[in-house]
Specification:
The protein is of the alpha/beta class and 145 residues long. It is built from four helices and eight strands. 23% of the residues lie in helices and 34% in strands.
Length: 145
């Protein structure tokens, strides 16, 4: 089957609804180092923003007046960001006080996982030759021998 792209599609950019835009910015910008590159303001309040880091981008929009949806934010959503050094993001998350899971090796990749304030799961992943299933603490112990 031939794959054609007459529209010139360049990038997929997920849009996440959030309860609190400032908490979102604190987590992604201050905590993880993303940059806010575009915003939409309504009466001086940020209602939407575009954030990027390297070649990855995400959009966030303030959830307004939808109580049913509010309880379901983050369910079933997981973003996997491929990078050169996922463990750098683990160190950054720890340094900035973000709750982050212990990294592990899955599918020949270091996987660094955390959840944002709305429950969305974010994974930073990078290739490795460390054995499958190894945890960060196990790997560190082996390195120090």
């Amino acid at each position: 089957m031939e794959n054609s792209d007459p529209a010139g599609v360049k990038q997929a950019v997920p849009l996440y609804l959030v309860r609190n835009m400032q908490a979102c910015i604190d987590f992604y910008v201050k905590g993880l180092g993303f940059d806010v590159t575009n915003t939409w303001l309504v009466d001086g309040e940020m209602r939407w923003c575009w954030m990027s880091m390297g070649g990855a981008a995400m959009m966030f929009q303030l959830l307004v007046a939808d109580k049913a949806l509010d309880k379901k934010l983050g369910l079933g959503v997981e973003l996997c960001l491929q990078c050169d050094q996922a463990l750098v993001m683990y160190d950054r998350a720890l340094k900035n006080g973000l709750p982050v899971d212990e990294p592990f090796v899955g599918n020949n990749m270091w996987v660094v996982s955390l959840r944002d304030p709305d429950g969305y799961k974010i994974n930073f992943e990078s290739p490795t030759d460390v054995p499958e299933g190894t945890t960060y603490n196990q790997w560190n112990k082996e390195k120090q021998k």
